[in-house]
Amino acid sequence: MQIKISQLKIENGLHTLSIPEWQIEDNQSWGVFSTDGDIGSMLGDLLCGEYKVSAEACWISNPNIAQVSLAEQQRLLEEELANDDTDFLDRIDTGTDVESLIYLQCKDEALTAKLLYDLDLTHLAGSGFRVLSTGETRRVMLARALATKPALLVLDNPFVGLDVEHRASLARYLKQLSNTLQMLVTFNREEDLPDWITQIALFNHGALDSFMQKEEWESHPVIKQIKSQSRKQSEEVLRLVQSHQHSSQFPDPIFQIKAGKVAYTEKTIFLGVDWRINQGEHWQLKGPNGCGKSTLLGLIFGDHPQCYSNDIYIFGNKRGSGETIWEIKQNIGMVSSALHLQYRVSCSALEVILSGFYDSIGLYTQPSKREQQIAMEWLQILHMSEYARTSFRQLDYGQQRLLLIARAIVKQPTLLILDEPYQGLDYLGRRLVKNALELIARDNLSQLLYVSHYAGDKLETIKNELQFVYDENAECYRAEIIRGE
Fold it and tell me: What is the rounded CA–CA span in Å between residue 270 and residue 262?
């Protein structure tokens, strides 16, 4: 496939994509790096015909192009939610099963079976889409794209949300696939750039900046500039949090679960979890996709239906002893893919941050002037002041995730739960958030419960780990506790 782009400039209301000249030859695969903004999704939409442009501006020899992105994943999840039939069934509707989602793209049973096997989805063939973990969902989206037998595959950060094992297996799979399928892979992490890609297109503030070989990338002046900028912004976040600091003192344990277990009709996720969090402790949760990390965090936050069937103590009190869910949530800040999906109300960027003071999805209370001032300061630090009145759902996925992170931190909760917080963030946003979390943990402004599958995301201030390991005899996961210094 050949692609020729010349003097192209498109806008989606938030970002501009500008490409003076770019030519992609037959069988040529590229890496695409963007300093900021959701360029990968815009580029995928452009090539898939979502933007109306002239053939002179963008000529494509074969229109059979598929893309895999977080934005596409979000769209499918919203479709699944819109078709929720729980109210008409005698069970919870978990969504279209994985096998059907793939089959509907190709109507080919043999190809469907092959993709299920190749992407380690066979054991999930009958599972509903809405109960999959983030990493499992990502693999389903790739299978659906490949089921269309594309001539070109656009992969927007394909490794995001995958555990270490599945990242490695996907890297091997894509390398093999690259021999027969042309690909365009966007990335915002150095370690995610496939080794079989040698040519990189660098976008800076939405404009194609330059082309380079892989070895030139890290020393590029734009990358050095971003690293310096992210450190400065992180220090601004710390100063903002410190300037509005308050503390809530609770007796130990902050959280404790005894012989914790979560099981569904068809399977047990984990059992025998004994975990205690004391004052001042930060924790990282580790384990493969589907092991129960997000489920355990849901037990703490109170959003999981089995939080009352477990022996749980939180903020010094036994859960179910008379406290309301709002009394618990007012001391917890939360960022997760599930929350991101749930935040589907029509409200502005400013209101999203303000909603963090009230633990609501949307804003239904008149905020104080002080709260409005703090929220505006957050927008300024995130370089999003111009979007204060812009609808949350009009923003790109990375901008939405930054707002949800600010929403979680704004009230300075005792517990700050961060479940894959960097998902969808661009290079600058990821460095900014990671640096800021390191500073918050260092100064004990909140206690962090942190999930990330990347070794490079490890926060030096977090010394305690809960690791889920699979128990072959019990056919489920158990937790191993590692306390640091």
Answer: 6
347 closest CA partner among 327, 370, 381, 375: 375
Query: In the predicted model, what is the mean pLDDT of the chain?
Result: 89
8 A C-beta contact, residue 254 and residue 447: yes
Cis status of the peptide bond prior to 253, with omega within 30 of 0: yes
Asked if 403 and 421 count as a contact pair (C-beta separation under 8 A), the reply is: no
Q: What's the CA gap between 123 and 116, in Å, rounded?
A: 8
Helix ranges (H only) for 4-87 are 39-47, 70-82
Give tens-digit pLDDT for 324-373.
778 888 899 999 988 888 888 889 999 999 999 999 999 999 999 999 99
Rounded distance between C-alpha atoms, residue 176 and residue 329, angstroms: 47
Order across the sheet with 332-335: list the strands.
317-318, 311-314, 255-263, 268-277, 476-482, 464-471, 283-286, 447-451, 415-419, 332-335
Backbone torsions φ then ψ of 32, nearest 5 degrees:
-125, 120
Amino acid sitting at position 480? E
Residues 6+ apart with CB under 8 A from 385: 376, 379
Q: Which of 299, 211, 288, 200 is nearest to 256 (CA)?
A: 299
In which region does residue 206 sit, left (phi positive, over 0), alpha (psi from -120 to 50) or beta (all else)?
left
Beta bridge pairs of residue 68: 155
Predicted TM-score (pTM) of this structure: 0.79
Q: Are 432 and 253 in contact (CB under 8 A)?
A: no
CB 175 within 8 A of CB 20: no
Radius of gyration for the alpha carbons in the chain, expressed in angstroms and rounded: 23
